[in-house]
């Protein structure tokens, strides 16, 4: 009986030690989990900071082109408003003549003579048509400036954006619109299938496309410096392939040296002279696309230039049977 009791005590002690050990391990595991969550949060914050830093660097690249895009409509707005100001004097002349006739301050013959004299400067038909055309031009110019500023603000402002569903075509249009001045010397062709809907952070995806397009434009510009007869082309194609949006961005620039092509997505790697590049452009692209469960690759074209291929899963609404 005593042996059974001793065995029981040994078993109880072993069980107590095991429970204590399990409690210690559970407590330690909980602490490690808390620490892991903190590290994950820090990593996410750092990732947001890197993307935002990339946006700021891109804004520096965009600034001159955006200023030019705003100055163009501003120039004809100023010219049109000057013309409208001069037309206001002509309109005032017609209104004054009509007012004097209504108030019996002049005879109809005097009114007709005054109108004939005003018509020699500008006819009422031309005046009405010109004012209408100029007003439409002014509205179009204001809308153009408003769109540029809205796109720039939407791209630049830091924000925590929840995932939304959007068409990849919208992103391509947004990116090329912001880079319109930078791409003006390239023959740009866009060929996108409709309804390529993906779910994710639209602002970050736009950032990724801008980075790729900026690199393509710079490559083409560098080649133009070596060959003045060179005609730069940029082709953007988007297709639905196996429930993925596959976007190919192909330029005919100078391409990438084979010895470094495997390093282009590495952080801080740059082929530009010291001080001219952050080395984060394509690294940011890689991070953004990876976060959207996609893949990005780059290769040289046999005919010259380089191609970037981006593959992102389509959202469920695009493929309801998937």
TrEMBL record:
Transmembrane segments: none annotated. One of its GO terms (molecular function) is phosphorelay sensor kinase activity. Keywords: Coiled coil, Phosphoprotein. Residues 8-53 form a coiled coil. Pfam families: HATPase_c (PF02518). Its EC number is 2.7.13.3. It is an enzyme of class 2 (transferase). SMART domains: HATPase_c (SM00387). Residues 65-316 form the Histidine kinase domain. It comes from the Bacteria. It catalyses: ATP + protein L-histidine = ADP + protein N-phospho-L-histidine. InterPro entries: HATPase_C_sf (IPR036890), HATPase_dom (IPR003594), His_kinase_dom (IPR005467), HisK_dim/P_dom (IPR003661), HisK_dim/P_sf (IPR036097), Sig_transdc_His_kin-like_C (IPR004358). This is histidine kinase. It comes from Pseudoalteromonas luteoviolacea.
């Amino acid at each position: 009986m005593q042996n059974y009791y001793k065995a029981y005590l040994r078993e109880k002690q072993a069980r107590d030690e095991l429970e204590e050990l399990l409690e210690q391990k559970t407590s330690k595991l909980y602490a490690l989990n808390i620490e892991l969550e903190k590290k994950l949060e820090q990593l996410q914050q750092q990732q947001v900071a890197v993307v935002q830093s990339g946006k700021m660097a891109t804004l520096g690249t965009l600034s001159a082109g955006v200023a030019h895009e705003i100055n163009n409509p501003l120039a004809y707005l100023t010219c049109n408003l000057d013309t409208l100001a001069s037309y206001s004097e002509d309109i005032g002349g017609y209104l004054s003549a009509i007012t004097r006739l209504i108030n019996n301050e002049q005879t109809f013959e005097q009114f007709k003579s005054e109108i004939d004299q005003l018509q020699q400067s500008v006819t009422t038909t031309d005046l009405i048509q010109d004012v209408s055309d100029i007003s439409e031009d002014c509205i179009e110019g204001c809308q153009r400036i408003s769109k540029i500023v809205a796109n720039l603000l939407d791209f630049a402002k830091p924000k925590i954006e929840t995932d939304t569903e959007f068409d990849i075509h919208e992103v391509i249009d947004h990116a090329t619109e912001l880079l319109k001045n930078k791409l003006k010397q390239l023959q740009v062709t866009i060929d996108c299938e409709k309804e390529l809907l993906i779910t994710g952070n639209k602002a970050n995806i736009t950032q990724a496309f801008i980075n790729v397009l900026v690199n393509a434009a710079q490559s083409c510009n560098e080649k133009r410096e070596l060959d003045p007869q060179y005609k730069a082309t940029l082709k953007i194609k988007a297709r639905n392939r196996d429930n993925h949006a596959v976007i190919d961005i192909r330029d005919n620039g100078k391409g990438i040296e084979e010895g470094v092509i495997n390093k282009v997505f590495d952080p801080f790697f740059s082929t530009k002279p010291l001080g001219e590049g952050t080395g984060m452009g394509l690294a940011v692209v890689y991070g953004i696309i990876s976060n959207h469960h996609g893949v990005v690759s780059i290769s040289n074209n046999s005919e010259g230039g380089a191609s970037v291929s981006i593959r992102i899963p389509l959202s469920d609404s695009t493929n309801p049977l998937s």
